[in-house]
Amino acid sequence: MAQLGGTPVFIMKEGTERQRGRDAMSNNIAAAIVIAEAVRTSLGPRGMDKMLVDQFGDVVITNDGATILKEIDVQHPAAKMMVEVAKTQDSEVGDGTTTSVILAGELLKRAKKLIEQKIHPTVITEGFRKAAEKAVEILDNISIKSGIDDKEGLKNAAMTCMSSKIVSESKEKLAQICMDAILAVAEKSENGKWVADIEKVQIQKKEGDSIDDTSLIKGIILDKEVVSPGMPKSIRDAKILLLQSAIEIEKTEFDTKLQITSPDQIQQFLDEEEHMLRTMTEKIANSGANVVICQKGIDDMAQHFLTKAGITAVRRVKKSDIEKLAKATGGAIFTNLDDITSDKLGWAGLVEERKIMNDSWIFIEECKDPKSVVILIRGGTELIIDEVERAIHDSLCVVRDVVEDQKLVGGGGAPEIEVAIQLRKYASTLGGREQLAVEIFADSLDIIPKTLAENAGLDQIDTLMKLRAAHQKGNKFAGTDLDTGDVVIDMAKIGVVEPTVVKVQAIKSSTEATSMILRIDDVIASARSAGPPGGMPPGMGGMPPGMGGMGGGMGGMPPMDY
Ligand code: ADP
Ligand code: MG
Asked: Is 73 among the residues known to form the active site?
């Protein structure tokens, strides 16, 4: 409600809550910082893990930033923006989620101090934008050239990514698998650039054995078994018929009544059915197929005939799997047995049923198209397998990033320190209030090496000073090796490397979110139709009491005094 010549004007629905100016901003910043704090302890190879329990009591144990934030039910709008930072980072480059959120939190923390010194938020966001642009340029300049031929670089990047995961003990083996998988699916596009689609890497999970039994299968896995025990379980030089229709006698759509007057007629009827099924299976056998993968059912009698013909069959396979098989084996998908021709059958070097724990699965290997690969994840419990899957996802992304972008930087806080030092030099060329913003941007970057050190039980300031000194001497990849505890070491030399795009994206996504949060000076929350009274979502830093409603409150709003 506002006043216009003494007449109250109702602008918003009753119950709408509003928060303006400083209050809105400090509230938003506080909420965002809470999120950054929540993931801080999980950064790096010495980071701690989180156990998350959802409303149904399901447990997730992880130290993957994106997963932690996805699982916690955040209510505050500014906190939600921080969750978005992690999501963007995850979908764009697949790694560096914790880094980007911690960085955003630190940028906000330091921006708040400048705002308290009466520097306008738009000056700060403009300074941040310039600093981010420059930081990306610096990262590009210090990068090492890599790419699809740099097997060592690819594997090292995958290993670095794995080393901050719960499954890091098996990082060598898992990194190799991720690299091989990406190399298998990578393709050279028309413009000569390499691209790798991680969607092409199929993931299958099976509880049992240990993480080290995780393997890469060049082909496809079906979680089905051979339809009849008499059929061959292992077929070399497999000629595969992909069938979308059933190998059964079609039932009529209506109820039909058959008047049978003598036992002969029953026999005749059955003979006819047998004859039809025999003809169907003969058509298959005549095509030269020795494996049938069927989307629908296969009649018992047909199974018998197929077994006699030495043909292996699998039934009720998912449509999507049949389509994948068509691509992998180069075979056509048939809907009518009369259309089958031998040249349109798929081919694979080996089709085999194997027992994994209590289940039998069909492995179709050495396919015509070598780009089909599956990672079969093994591990003692479901919790472990899920974490292995997340680690593999991140590593696949990291290898893809390097294959596509062809650039690496050292890890362990090295790039952040280097960029910070160069940014401070850049800031001095700017002058004015913008210089302050660029300087605090540089200071914010130090949070990464500081947090890595803190999580490993090292002295933050001491580590930072030693690293800075090394960088000043020209060692651009001086960082802390948290595997050995060596405080100053050339990270690239010891193979702790990360894709440049991961660092670039972390800077971009954190700067974007920070700027967005800093520009908000008005939070208007509609009254919620259901739920607790008070309108503003509960949780981190809600609306302070007394702000509720619009009635007469406008006059008392804090002035905007930047
Ligand atoms: P994010 O979600 O940001 O990827 P992580 O928990 O995966 O967070 O930690 C990544 C950080 O850990 C990076 O800065 C990376 O350089 C660092 N790191 C990984 N392995 C090592 C190592 N052996 N020594 C030092 N730092 C490492
Ligand atoms: Mg990581």
From this structure: no
DSSP-derived letter for residue 298 is B
| Residues 291 and 351 sit within 8 Å (Cβ to Cβ) | yes
For residue 492, the CA-to-ligand 2 centroid distance in Å is 17
Ligand 2 centre and the CA of 387: distance in Å?
A: 13
Which of 95, 386, 394, 446 is an active site residue? 394
Q: Which atom of ligand 1 is nearest to the CA of 482?
A: 24
Ligand that comes closest to the CA of residue 97: 1
- Which tens digits make up the pLDDT trace of 323-376? 989 989 999 999 999 999 999 999 999 999 999 888 899 999 998 888 889 999
Q: What are φ and ψ of residue 371, in 5° steps?
A: -85, 0
Mean pLDDT of the chain: 87
User: Is 405 one of the catalytic residues?
Assistant: no
Ligand 2 is a single-atom ion; what residues have CB below 5 A from it? 95, 164
How many separate helices (H) and strands (E) can be counted in the chain? 16, 22
Probe residue for ligand 1, chosen from 40, 46, 62, 99 as the CB with the greatest number of ligand atoms within 8 Å = 99
**Domains contained in the chain, CATH given:** 18-145+409-522 (1.10.560.10), 151-218+377-405 (3.30.260.10), 237-361 (3.50.7.10)
- For the chain, the maximum distance between any two Cα atoms, rounded to a whole number of angstroms, is 106
Among candidate residues 536, 544, 550, the one with its CA nearest the CA of residue 77: 536
Question: Structure pTM?
Answer: 0.83
Structure letter (DSSP) for residue 354: E
CA angle 149, 151, 157 (to 5 degrees): 120
**Secondary structure string (H, E, C) spanning 187-205:** EECCCCCEECCHHHEEEEE
Q: What's the CA gap between 202 and 221, in Å, rounded?
A: 9
- For residue 435, give the 3-state DSSP assignment: helix
Element (H, E) at 62: strand 59-62
* Cβ neighbours of residue 356 closer than 8 Å, sequence gap 6 or more: 206, 208, 376
Q: DSSP character for 208?
A: B
* Dihedral pair phi/psi, residue 315, rounded to 5°: -120, 170
How far away, in angstroms, is 482 Cα from ligand 1 center? 9
For ligand 1, what atom is nearest to the CA of residue 163? 20
Q: Which two tokens stand for residue 106?
A: 């630190």
Residues with CB under 6 A from ligand 1: 42-45, 47, 65, 95-99, 160, 163-164, 411-412, 448, 452, 480-483, 496, 498
Report the nearest-CA residue for atom 25 of ligand 1: 412
Q: Rounded CA gap, 199 and 179, in Å?
A: 14
Q: Residue count of the chain, please give it.
A: 562
pLDDT tens by residue, 294-334: 999 999 999 999 999 999 999 999 999 999 899 899 999 99
Q: Which of 394, 393, 388 is nearest to 214 (CA)?
A: 388
Rounded to 10 degrees, what is the CA torsion of 137, 502, 483, 416?
30
The C-alpha atoms of residue 443 and residue 424 are separated, in whole angstroms, by 9
Which pLDDT tens digit goes with each residue over 262-271? 888 888 888 8
